[in-house]
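thought: user wants a sequence for this fold. calling inverse folding tool.
action: design(structure=
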């Protein structure tokens, strides 16, 4: 900035400006530079908790498949969200990549699921998730692989935590035939398992 001011003074003297005019000119230039600097700091503060992904291939896939990602430039990897997980969701024997992402344009969180075969789906990010009554995964503080063969049941619908399997309704239990996604709120109740049905549609098994 000092070099810019010295250059401005030199030009002003060359054009024959008097000292009063030069001081006014220098003051205006200083105000403009200061305003630009302050605006830049505000911009950085607004997005201080999000960073762009290093591996853009897994964040902004070239083939979106279900055509759910409309503006890839607004999708970010939040620093405070769980790390990506890798598992075979669709049963093709290859690991798929699942990550929690933030759509900064609408300030909504969701899952980006990049399948090894090229298909990519997004869940949440402002779009209603099945019939669960939410469109934002900002509550998810824990994300883990739900292993293939694991038995899950919706014990939120039952008073007895020691209930036997044969007493649980079919719609309230599942033994995963493929890996799933376990999500849970961090340090509080609430969560469930996301998995694929045989027809490749998503399903949710409430856990709390």
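)
observation: tool returned 208 residues.
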């Amino acid at each position: 900035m000092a070099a810019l001011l010295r250059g401005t003074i030199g030009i002003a003297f060359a054009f024959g400006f008097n000292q009063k005019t030069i001081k006014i000119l220098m003051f205006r230039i200083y105000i403009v530079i200061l305003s630009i600097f302050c605006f830049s700091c505000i911009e950085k503060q607004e997005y201080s908790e999000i960073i762009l992904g290093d591996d853009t291939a897994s964040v902004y896939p070239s083939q979106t498949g279900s055509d759910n990602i409309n503006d890839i430039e607004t999708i970010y990897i939040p620093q405070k969200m769980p790390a990506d997980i890798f598992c075979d969701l669709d049963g093709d024997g290859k690991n798929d990549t699942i990550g929690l992402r933030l759509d900064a344009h609408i300030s909504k969180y969701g899952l980006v699921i990049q399948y090894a075969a090229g298909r990519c789906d997004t869940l949440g990010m402002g779009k209603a998730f099945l019939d669960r009554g939410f469109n934002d995964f900002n509550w998810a503080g824990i994300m883990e692989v739900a292993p293939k063969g694991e038995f899950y049941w919706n014990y939120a619908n039952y008073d007895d935590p020691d209930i036997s399997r044969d007493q649980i309704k079919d719609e309230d239990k599942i033994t995963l035939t493929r890996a799933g996604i376990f999500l849970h709120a961090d340090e509080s109740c609430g969560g469930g398992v996301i998995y694929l049905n045989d027809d490749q549609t998503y399903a949710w098994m409430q856990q709390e």
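thought: summarizing for user.
answer: Here is the designed sequence. The longest strand covers residues 96-103.
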